[in-house]
Structures are given as structure tokens and as C-alpha cells.
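Reagents: none. Just compute today. Integrase core domain protein.
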Amino acid sequence: MTSLEKSGYQVQFGHISSEWNPADCATRGLDKQSLSNHFWWNGPSFLRDSSETWEKTYKAVTIEKALGQGFIPQYADQEHVSSEKNSRLRLSLHSSSCPTREATKISRMRLSRLWCIDHNIDSNSLSGTEIAIASKVLVKQHQLSCLNPQIMKSLHHLNLREDEDGILRCYRRMGNSALKSSAKCPMFVLQKSWLSQLIIEDCHSKGHPSTSHTMANIRQYYWIPKLRSQYPEQSGLPSRRVQRSRPFAHVGLDYFGPLTISLTSDTTGKCYGCIIICMVTRLIHLDVATDLSTTAFLHVLRRFFARRGVPVSITNDNSPTFTLGETVLEDCRRNIRSDPTISRMISDREIEWKYITPYAPWQGGVYERLIRSVKLILYKTLGKKTPSYEELSTAVIEIEAMLNTRPLLYVDSGPNAEQILRPIDFLQN
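Predicted 3D structure written out:
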């Protein structure tokens, strides 16, 4: 059709009735005598007459743009494909891949030339090429439905240009680098749109990386303006972390180690550090457990209760040691309740045990981050020396004192700066 238009012919499309459809003779069959005089050779006879005499049902129309230059359909009133049903990017890509596969089966040769599809499309699983095509379909449809001349005018500084598939890409200064083409010229996606939200959530769900890490992964394929401001919003903090309470009323608990200690001049052993952090004041309590047994854990708790008081709630991992420790404490409390003289005393000391979601260690980040600080100071303090149990216990307590004097807020360098707030201030003032 393009070559006919270049030759000066006007190409039109219209509807004709079945009796004038020359394609039907190939399916219904013709005898030899009818074929020689059939209109299949020259088309319907009314086409030779003036267009004013054609049937009104023909309704000829002129195609502005040659078919095949863009495979992606245009949707004027839809921002995305099944946005309500497909809340995840991968589901949307699979939904977009299915029509692409069916169209490929219908016109294999045509689409193979356009999209370089040369794999076996009869298999049930989607290939990487089909997923890549689906991402182009989603981005192209997003651009057609969301971008208008006014928005494009405000994005002139991004150097947006269409590629061979009609997709707007951001042509950056890295065009001559050895990066892959998708990173040198990423596809443009408008900020604060449905598609940008799915892309960000998909990249962030793979290990929950930091803001900069997530942005770096996204820009390997997509360019989203003001990306940093669209980083997934953090959920609200638990009430036990934001409501006023006494120090160590709500704590988080975890083990770290193993830590190597010297038993004799020739033998070494292992022990484990235990960190208990106040959820509100960020105070920390450090102790050393001889092993991972439930008995050692109960001794750590007893020492903590004696020095800091009985907490209202304890948050920890789903470790078998912690779970069994809770069971033992519940059994002890159940036996003590039978004594009426002390039942009232322990009724106010009930501890609420909370466990983070399995395989979600970031939920314990409140104490995991401080474990890193403890290990760093411990390494700088001891170096390569193998301490005894007493030396390690002393070093751990000194590290506790050091971290409890760390600043909780930004330290101003001005002469009129206010007093720095530290965790230890909640105990001493």
C-alpha cells in the first residue's frame, strides 16, 4: 500500500457484500467455465463506474498512515491495560503478551520482520522476547494515552525522540558508551502514573533495596522524571514505637555472632551476643549468652529484667530459641499464678511477645542496624585478638555505653546549637 501511495495512487478501504467478494471463490470453488469470466480477475464491476453510483454500504475511507508501521494499538480513553485487574507489572506483561502471541500466529512472517520474533511461539511458556515486546506494548500504550502536546512541551529538556517502533525514549549523553541500548536510551514513562507505580513496586520488591539502588535498576530500562519522589511510601510505624513510654517498655531482641572466645591457652569456644533495644528511646542493652540454648536465653532475660525492668512487649525473629523461651516463661507464670500471694504482683508483668513475619528480616531493621554498629566497634576494639569470656563481656558492656551516647539528631556546628539528644539522656535526665 505504501508503494502504491508513493506512485500517486489513492488507496481506500471499504465494505462490500459477500456476492461481490472476490476472495470467496477460492474457498467455495468455481468450475472452469465460470472462472474464465469471473470478476476475480478484475474485481467487482461497479468499481469501474463513478464513485457516486456505488452502494452506500461501501463507505470507502482513506487510511492516513500505512498499516504495519506501528504494531501497537492505540487506546484514546485508557491509560493502561486492565489496571484494576493487573496490580503487578508481571501480570500486566503476561496479559499484554497473549494478544501479541495470537497476532504473531496469524501473521508470523509480517511480525517476524517487524519485531524479530524467530522462536517457537507454539510453546506454552512465554519467552524473554515476548516479555520484552509486552513491555514495549505497555509503554507505547501509556505514552499514547497520557502524553499530550502540553506535557511534551514541558519535557523538552529530556531530549525525547521516537525510536524505530514509535516509542519515545530519553536520549542521554551516554549514547557512545558500552552500555546496553535500553540503558543508553531508556523508554520514557510519565511520573506518578499507573505504569510508573508498577515499575517502581516491581523493582523495589526484588530484595527491597535502597532508594538509590532502586533508581539505578529502573533506569536500566525506563526513564521516569522525578523518580526519587515516587519511591514507595513507608507504612506507618507501630504504636509501640511512637507512643511515649518508659525506657525499655517495648523492646526488640536478637542474637548476633558467633563470637570466638579463648577457653584455655590452646582451645577456643563460641558464644553469642544478645542485643535488646528500646523501640522508643533507642537505648540498647547488650549481653553475652554462652550458647543458643533456651536456658542461656532465659538467663539473659533474667539479667535484663533485673537491670532494666520487665518490658511490656518483646519483638524478635521466629527463632526456635526465642519461641521456646516464650513457652518456658508462660509455663513458669502459669505455675506461679497458683500461689495467691504473688499472683497480683505478676499480673502487671505480662509480656506481649511479637514475632516479625517469616522471611522478612527488614521488619527487624530497628535492631539489625545497631547490630552492625556493635560488630564494627567490636572488630575495631579487639582486632584479631581472641578474648576470654570476661574480656568479651567487658568489651560488650563498654560498647553498650558508647552506643547509648550516640546522637539521635543532626549535630549542628553553630555556636548556638542546642544540646544534643542522646539515648542515655532518657535514663540520666
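The longest helix spans residues 128-146.
Action item: order primers for follow-up constructs.
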